[in-house]
């Protein structure tokens, strides 16, 4: 988080809202630019002011919801606050309806239930161990250099390795796979102005991804007919599943659901790893305790450090929704607000996790926070389906990194996260081993 962005005028320290109101009266576009910049550099201070003064922040272009109760209400009312804000873009990329782009439809319920079976929670320990092995191999190579670029050199490698081995979806090569996911997710969640070139790149990526998966599915079906053994991965489970024809699980549904798995993982898991590591390294005393916990046989002792660190800078700070009908949010409370149909709503989990009405001592680093206060995997109808393996992958990768001696932030400009599209971590160089070892 950057320095507090406030301006002194005539001896008065202007708040974010005062600056916003003044800019809105003068030039609405500049007002939106201020909010966007604050979201990037000073989001905690902005959200704190909004929770106190305008918990439902209404602008001409969008409405931001900041209190814990209101955020969870929005995310729980899928029949009112739909994913139509981004769903059609995902459908266009994947060539058909995708569960994440639908709200409480029969297709959504069926596909979600199917994928919950395929992503068996009992796989979590094995997937965590897989992530740890991949991380250690990469760290062994990097450690003699005294430094490592961890976004592409570690975090994305681990995510892509899990996609290959556990999902059964390696792609033609890691670089192509990574490019596909970035193109589609950028259009779905970062193409705020609807840039047609970004949309076209997403559709191309999705088409290539589906073509690849069609070939892979044909090979697996041929292997099954020949009686050959398939690896126990998610794709093989889907390929070998036979359901009554009335269920409607045809090959296109299998392919689209398989294509959706890396979209919810290859960007978000490395993003969470980068943010959590940075927050731990910024707190030397906390870091020392986390490193000690990393050596304990009980992984839950260390995992709490990861999730509390991530609370101070979550990867996804805002979740977009579209209000489908007039709706009174927080009805019966002093902050009751009518949200008109057609409103673009941004629910802010990053703000909700600092709401002092729910989260005790929100500005303190505490390890005793209950799991239901953590909104990293969403909430309600569209909460993450792969939460069980994803938790293990994120925590184990961070744990293996911090078990290496001398992990530290480097002096600027390298010792910071560099982002693309203001969202996706793309570069983060850390020191490893003894200081002065860097090559």
Would you give an account of this structure?
The chain is an alpha+beta fold and 439 residues long. It folds into 2 domains: 1-41; 42-431, Cytochrome p450. Helix content is 51%, strand content 10%. It has helices at residues 16-26, 28-41, 43-53, 68-76, 87-94, 106-118, 124-142, 150-167, 174-189, 196-225, 234-239, 251-263, 268-281, 284-294, 299-311, 349-352, 387-402, and strands at residues 7-9, 12-14, 56-58, 63-65, 81-82, 147-149, 319-323, 327-329, 337-339, 344-347, 408-409, 418-420, 424-427, 429-431. The strands form 5 sheets. Strands 3-4-10-7-5 form a 5-stranded mixed sheet, with helices on one face. Helix 5 (87-94) crosses helix 10 (196-225). The mean pLDDT is 93.
């Amino acid at each position: 988080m950057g320095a507090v962005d406030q301006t002194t005028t005539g001896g008065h320290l202007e708040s974010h809202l005062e600056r916003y109101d003044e800019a809105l009266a003068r030039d609405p576009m500049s007002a939106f630019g201020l909010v966007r910049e604050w979201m990037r550099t000073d989001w905690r201070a902005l959200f704190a002011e909004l929770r106190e003064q305008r918990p439902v922040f209404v602008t001409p272009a969008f409405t931001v919801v900041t209190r814990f109760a209101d955020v969870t209400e929005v995310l729980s009312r899928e029949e009112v606050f739909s994913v139509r804000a981004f769903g059609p873009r995902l459908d266009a990329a994947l060539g058909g309806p995708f569960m994440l782009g639908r709200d409480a439809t029969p297709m959504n319920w069926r596909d979600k239930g199917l994928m919950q079976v395929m992503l068996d929670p009992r796989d979590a320990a094995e997937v965590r161990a897989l992530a740890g092995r991949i991380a250690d191999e990469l760290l062994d190579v990097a450690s003699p250099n005294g430094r490592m670029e961890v976004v592409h050199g570690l975090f994305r490698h681990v995510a892509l390795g899990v996609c290959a081995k556990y999902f059964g979806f390696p792609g033609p090569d890691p670089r192509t796979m990574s490019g596909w996911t970035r193109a589609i997710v950028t259009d779905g969640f970062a193409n705020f102005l609807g840039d047609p070139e970004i949309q076209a790149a997403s559709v191309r990526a999705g088409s290539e991804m589906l073509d690849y998966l069609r070939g892979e599915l044909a090979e697996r079906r041929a292997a099954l007919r020949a009686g050959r053994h398939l690896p126990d991965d998610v794709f093989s489970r889907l390929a070998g599943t036979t359901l009554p024809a009335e269920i409607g699980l045809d090959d296109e549904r299998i392919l689209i659901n398989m294509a959706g798995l890396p979209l919810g993982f290859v960007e978000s898991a490395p993003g969470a790893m980068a943010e959590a590591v940075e927050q731990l390294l910024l707190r030397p005393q906390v870091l020392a305790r986390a490193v000690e916990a990393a050596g304990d046989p009980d992984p839950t002792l260390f995992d709490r450090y990861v999730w509390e660190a991530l609370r101070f800078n979550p990867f996804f700070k805002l979740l977009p929704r579209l209000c489908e009908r007039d709706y009174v949010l927080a009805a019966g409370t002093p902050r009751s607000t009518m949200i008109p149909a057609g409103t673009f709503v941004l629910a802010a989990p990053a703000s909700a996790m600092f709401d002092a009405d729910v989260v005790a001592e929100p500005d303190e680093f505490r390890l005793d926070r209950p799991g239901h206060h953590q909104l990293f995997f969403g909430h309600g109808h569209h909460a993450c389906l792969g939460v069980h393996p994803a938790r293990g992958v994120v925590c184990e990768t961070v744990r293996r990194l911090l078990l290496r001696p001398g992990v530290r932030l480097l002096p600027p400009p390298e010792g910071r996260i560099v982002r693309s599209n203001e969202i996706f971590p793309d570069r983060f160089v850390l020191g490893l081993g003894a200081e002065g070892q860097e090559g």
